[in-house]
Design brief:
Mean pLDDT: 84
Number of strands: 19
Distance between the termini: 95 Å
Structural class: alpha+beta
Strand order of the largest sheet: 7-8-19-10-15-16-17
Strand content: 15-25%
Shape: elongated
Largest sheet: 7 strands, antiparallel
Low-confidence stretches: none
Number of helices: 7
Helix content: 25-40%
Order of helices and strands: HEEHEHEEEHHHHEEEEEEEEEEEEE
């Protein structure tokens, strides 16, 4: 009822006192009252006097000012269809609204119950207004409960998202610390190597210069002695007494002939081979001794190889053969998939190895649990003990994940693959070893012994004849 009263009060202010309808093109008189322009004009034409119909004030001159604010407000209220009786009276019959038509979802009056035609409600379902209001309150309550649950769910999702954001930030901080630490180790190795070389160079320089400076002092002493002899000879030559001159000259000749020339040039140089050789290579040789993990020189285990595969004599490469080999069918051996394991398994630590692919059109590399199934059709999912990335001719590069494979998009075609395995850290990362571009990372809590696994692939397209080769460490 309070809402009805406020609506009634609002609409009273927007109704023309002459036509009793919402203002149309309202104008304001000098006395302050408002009327529709057409209503006041027609009124003055009939009465032939220019007076206000409300207060009767007369105006010698007609001065109608447009009330734009009132016009805009009346138009907006007209669009809302607000009239004094809109909430209490039926638009059709002007009767009090006492019922709710459930069929049309509309308030109606008693006459609407029997009204016919397109606007009638005959044969519709009705209920009391209070009952309808309670029904919609119940629906709104249910909707409120549902919306509250959605809000709780959204808040929970927000909370978990914030936890994930916090986790990512913590992970970022941890990885940044790891990167800084690893490069600090390399910087320290290089710095120490540089300082040792400079120290050795300084020591070599000191030793050689010390010897040369000693030789310079000996040369100077000899020069002083020679200069004294020259002065003495010159004085002797000036002697006028022939007998004394010959006597002294013979003596000088004996003394000069008895002297031995001990002067020599100290020609030592700094050892270029020590300080101007392949410094980067020698530093790398020293660095690789401190790298963790050191690139592993793996070999293949022929006891696990599929009979259609051939392992090289040095056990570093595997290729597809032309026929099945007569190998014993042991529990260790793969019999359906073109797999072979590495000879060494791991139960801890960090490890890295590289596999040369060449132009192969089908391959697979990764790690597997020692206890994983090897016979018959294999399910290459992490859940059953296989963490593998590979290339299939018809499907491209894939990480064999669950529930389905994950497509990969290398920036360039890999010709060599790097596998990083961190047993304790629960990580298997695969890289294009040519540019160390990251391809995919598996995460898992590893148990039992884990082995490297290699798959040279079948030759269904006739182009996959090349071997899969485990790379050694160059220069190591």
């Amino acid at each position: 009822m309070a809402s009805t009263h406020r609506t009634q009060k609002l609409t009273d202010e927007l109704i023309c006192p002459i036509c009793l309808d919402f203002f149309t093109a309202p104008v304001i008189l000098e006395c302050g009252h408002n009327f529709c322009r057409s209503c006041i004009t027609q009124c003055w034409e009939k009465t032939e006097t220019n007076s206000c119909p409300e207060c009767r004030e007369e105006f010698p001159e007609i001065n109608l000012r447009v009330n734009r604010a009132l016009a805009n407000l009346a138009e907006k209220v007209r669009e809302l269809n607000l009239n004094p009786d809109s909430e209490l009276r039926c638009e059709e019959h002007q009767e009090e609204l006492t019922l709710f038509c459930e069929t049309d979802k509309k308030l109606v009056c008693v006459k609407c119950l029997v009204a016919k035609g397109p606007r009638g409600h005959k044969s519709h379902n009705f209920m009391a207004i209070d009952e309808a209001a309670q029904m919609y309150r119940d629906k709104l309550t249910s909707s409120l409960d549902s919306t509250t649950k959605r809000k709780d769910s959204a808040l929970d999702t927000e909370r978990r998202q914030k936890q994930q954001i916090s986790g990512v930030r913590e992970q970022w901080s941890s990885l940044q610390t790891h990167i800084t630490s690893e490069f600090a180790k390399m910087h320290q190795i290089l710095t120490e190597k540089e300082q040792r070389l400079i120290s050795d160079l300084r020591e070599q320089e000191g030793n050689i210069l010390k010897s040369m400076e000693k030789n310079c002092r000996a040369i100077q002493q000899e020069l002083d002695c020679i200069n004294r002899e020259i002065s003495a000879i010159q004085r002797q030559m000036e002697e006028q007494d022939t007998i004394w001159f010959l006597k002294e000259a013979a003596s000088w000749k004996r003394r000069i002939s008895e002297r031995v020339n001990v002067l020599s040039l100290d020609g030592q140089n700094l050892p270029l081979g020590m300080f101007k050789g392949p410094l980067q290579y020698t530093a790398w040789k020293e660095m690789i001794e401190n790298i963790s993990p050191v690139p592993a020189s793996l070999t293949l285990d022929p006891n696990t190889v599929n009979p259609w595969l051939i392992v090289s004599e040095d056990r570093t490469s595997v290729r597809l053969g032309n026929k099945r080999q007569p190998l014993p069918d042991t529990l260790q051996r793969f019999d359906s998939w073109a797999f072979v394991l590495g000879s060494e398994g791991f139960t801890s630590g960090r490890h890295y190895w590289e596999v040369e692919l060449g132009d192969k059109t089908e391959w697979g590399v990764g790690v597997t649990r020692q206890s994983a199934k090897r016979k018959g059709d294999l399910d290459l999912r992490p859940e059953v003990g296989y963490w593998i990335v590979g290339l299939l001719p018809s499907r491209g590069y894939l990480a064999f994940t669950s529930p389905s494979e994950t497509p990969l998009s290398p920036s360039v075609k890999p010709r060599k693959i790097g596998v990083y395995f961190d047993y304790n850290g629960g990580q298997v990362s695969i890289y294009n070893a040519g540019n160390m571009h990251h391809l995919y990372t598996f995460t898992h809590t590893f148990t039992g012994k884990i082995f490297p696994i290699f798959n040279p692939g079948w030759n269904s397209d006739g182009k996959n004849i090349g071997p899969l080769k485990v790379c050694g460490i160059k220069g190591h």
